[in-house]
Each structure stands twice: as structure tokens, then as C-alpha cells.
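Lab notes, practical 5.
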Amino acid sequence: MPIGTPFHERTFRLCESLNYREWSGYYTVSAYEAHHEHEYNAIRNAAALIDISPLFKYRVTGKDATRLVDRVITRDVRKVSVGQVIYTPWCDEFGKVIDDGTVSRLDENVYRWTAADPSLRWFTQNGVGLDVQIEDISESVAALALQGPTSARLLKAVSEDCDIASLKYFRVTTGKIAGVPVEISRTGYTGDLGYEVWVEAERALDVWDALIAGGRAFDITPAGMLALDVARIEAGLLLIDIDFNSSKKALVEEQKYSPFEMGLGRLVHLDKNRFVGQQALIEERKRGCSKQIVGLEIDWTEVEKLYEAVGLPPAVSPIASRVAVPVFRNGVQIGKATSTTWSPVLKKMIGLATVKREFEKPGTEIEVEITVEAIRHRVSAKVTKTPFYNPKQKTATPIL
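Output from the prediction step:
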């Protein structure tokens, strides 16, 4: 049975809809109100506060901490400075992705590692023979994502001993909020200006209260998973178990993905020291991959016509779909669309899809299955690059 996160005492009082879901054993708010429109708008136009405590979190320390991280992930840790955060996948020995997450280098040999799935066993196995300590801090460290255009000004107003103005994209620093020591990283899962706040679970409520109280002038709004799901698709960000599968949980080979197939080839540093899956990825780079995750823009005009044909007004769920549907080219299925949503900011229907390699080129015309009144149809779609939405404020120096 799920339990509450360290912020549950506050989020429960605010969740008027009582719309929850289970995330890694925790109760997580899907939407605070009956509709998640206000929460999504906060992400894109103001500041949204999202409880991300259910993430698995690990602290890696010891003389060989850097060696362990470098052995497991596909990126070159030698290029990562203290105070830097990186997003990275890690693979099994066959070059298939086990999981993806962020690695924050807090000190020369101190790292905070986040993951969607439990990873302690895998990290420990790869740490055999090394002078390294791996601590599961998933329960002892709470986390909040503060996302949106006013998030920097809000943090500047409520934080102490922290230079928010100079905190660059994918960097981490320390400070205090309400007198509570915190770590603040300029990271997030929305594709917008945003930060993540890491705090000891025992002091979590003090930080929540300070952000809510100080955030009223910046139109802060607690936001749930439904709003986050729309935002992350607009940002072209993948979700495990939906857009790709962990190789540890895949039932057949087709369900496994390499970093190249996920569009993460830029994060694979094949010339670095040996890492798990390196040889398999070198061979895949030479021969090319068989499939590719791509972005899709779906022809809304054709969707409208399908509804008009049965006498109904055009309709699309405001909730992002996580149900895979087939995609076609010249009548032949070439893959599947795994995440689709109406983008309020772009006024388009967009999606993420896995297609055969020969159809990955942007501009390729394909078709996506859509169901209207229990009848399956196919509408035109175009392969496109991601992210769909990429505002300048995401990486630019914030205006304070």
C-alpha cells in the first residue's frame, strides 16, 4: 500500500480532487483541482511546485566513487566538474538501457544519483572491488521541483546564502530556505526555466511552507503529474515504461532500447575509459540501430474531420495519453506512438513514437491510429525533431 511523501501533510490538504496515483510506493497527486489546466499554466507562465520525492536517490562516496560512476554511465565523468549535474543513461552489458537519471557531482568524490527504478543492486554489483560507499537516501532526502518563468525570482526571494542569479543550467549549489540547509539544482522535467530543491525529509515541511508563502507574489501553484506529463512531452523528454523499457524488465528484445535508439547518442562517449555496454555500443554505432524514438506532429485538421463526420465536435483529452497506438507508412505498420498530447502552448497535437530507422528523418509523412466512436482511423502525421517547445529562459541567465 502506498505511503505519503515527506510533503504529504501539505499536499493532501490542497488536493481537492483526491486524484492520486502510486509512484514508487508513494501517494502522488495527479491533479490538485478537478482539471489540471491551472497547474499546467503555472509551469509555462508562473511557478509550479511539484513533489518529486518518490525518485530513487543514492549518495555515492569514497576514494573510488568517480571510478564507479564512470564505469556505469555512458558519459565521461572526467569532463564533469564539481557543482555540475548531468543527465545520463546507463546500460547492461549488451548496450541496452537499464535506466536514465541525473548525476550531481557535489564534491570531488561525492555524487547524488537519481533513478526512476531501484538501482542499488546494480550499482553495488559494479562497485565490487572498489573503495566506494553507496547509500540509498531515497527516504531520507525529499525533493521538490520548482518550475516556470517566475521560479528564479521566487527562489531569490526566499533563499539565503545562495546566488540564484549565477546558477547556470545543470549546475547545483547549496543554500538555505527558512533556515533549512538545501541543495538547489537548475534542473527539471518540464523543458522550462526551473529548479529542484533537495532537503532532509525531516525538515521538508518547513521548506514547502516557505516556498508557498514566499511564492504567492509569484503566482505559485502546486502541480501534479497530469500537468507534468503534458509539459515533459512538449519538452521531448522520455518516460520509462512508456516511451522505453528498462532492459531489466523487458520481456522480449523488441522492448529493449539502446541510447542511440532513444536519441541519446550525444550522451554516449565511446572514447572514454571502459564502461558497461561499451563494446556493444561501439558495434551498434558501426552498423546503425534498427529503430528510433522521434517526435510527431499530428494533423489536427484530419482529426477534426473525423469528428465532424459522425456529428460530434472535435475532442481531444486534456490528459496526455500513455497508451501505445500503431503508426503506419503506405499501409504498413512501422512502429508505435507511445505518448501523445494536445499542447496548449503550441496549439498542436504532438507525440513521441518509436519507428523503424528508415523513417526517422524529420519531415517524413506517416499515419497514426486514432479512435473515434469506437472506430479506428488513421490520420496524417509528420516526423519532427524534439523538443517541441524550447523557450530561451530554460538555459538563459534568469531575469531577477
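Observations recorded by the TA: The longest helix spans residues 204-215. The first strand starts at residue 19 and ends at 23.
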